[in-house]
Design a protein that fits this description.
Elements: H1 2-24, E1 41-47, H2 54-62, E2 69-75, H3 82-92, E3 96-100, H4 110-121, E4 126-130, E5 134-136, H5 140-150, E6 155-159, E7 161-162, H6 167-170, H7 175-183, H8 187-191, E8 204-208, H9 209-215, H10 217-220, H11 227-237, E9 242-246, E10 251-253, H12 259-267, H13 278-299, H14 301-322, H15 326-331, H16 333-353, E11 357-358, E12 361-362
Length: about 375
Amino acid sequence: MIYFCYFLIILLIIRLLVAFVNYLSFAYLPKTTSLTSVPSVSILIPARNEEENIGTLLEQLSTFQYDELEIIVYNDHSTDKTESIIKHWAALKPNIKLLNGDTLPKGWLGKNHACHQLAKAATGNILLFLDADVSVKKGVIKRSISYLQQHDLHLLSVFPKQIVKSFGEKVSVPLMNWVLLSILPIYLIRRSKNKIFSAANGQFMMFKAATYKEIWPHERYKSNKVEDIAIIRLFKQKKLASDTRLGDNDISCRMYVGLDEAIEGFIKNIFQFFGNSIIVTITFGILTTIAPFVVYLYMGLWWLIAYLFGIVSIRFFVMLASQQSIIQNLLLVLPQHIIFLLIIIKGLINNKQKKLIWKDRNILQDL
């Protein structure tokens, strides 16, 4: 059993080193911008029942000063005021366009179909897919294009800085960065050809239009509920330079409102965080839960204290890198871990039942 304890400690040290490297790598878009050219840009926004968010995003985008910028919003059969809000902004700004959705074809998931239709309507040399709940500031377009050009990327994704307000969000939303930044060195996404070092976020994905329209990735993964990760893996497989950055105050998002919505949202992609392996996901959940108890029982109090210090250190560096409250997340370690286990359990149940309702659609149904 002592060797199992050594294994747990080594695993903790590896995760701590990954979190530390992610903190040191300062994986944000550069503040300074230098464009080799000024390409036309299409900002593409899929929206379904987004009356709480779409007006704010369009107001922000309407202030952007960029020579060739079109903004197309796909209204995916919204039953609230989303369409009227889009029409209001389209009447004010000629570069804002409304695209009303067709009937969702069999075999497609709603967002993937919306993104595909948006791309077909876009005219820009750069395609930027934004979720309606993302908040952006003026410099983000030039910062993104500058980084894209600097590294000759075909795909750039950004994990927006997460805004959490309710207690339910505080014990759930930070889990995404806790997992991501303690098992994946962001530094290696662009530098390594191995697909295992892949991560992307569909809330912010920027493509060279020529590359996108040669591959049509949303069509290729039309039924994939975690299409963002599938797409960046495809790009790496095709040796198309890609990268993922962390968001700062220029790119933020309140991803979910409340605990229930956060749990349902994370259920969609919890297994994808671990290479789409249910076994690896369950193993990680079990090991991170039992490790402190096993270390204490077989190695004693001082080793337990050292192990707990490692857990705290991982959280510390992850929160620094993701620009989240350190004290708040340290105080919520236990409830966050309970929610993490609950997400895994519910994910297993939903997979068996093939039922997960998101935006009033069952995204686990047979397609």
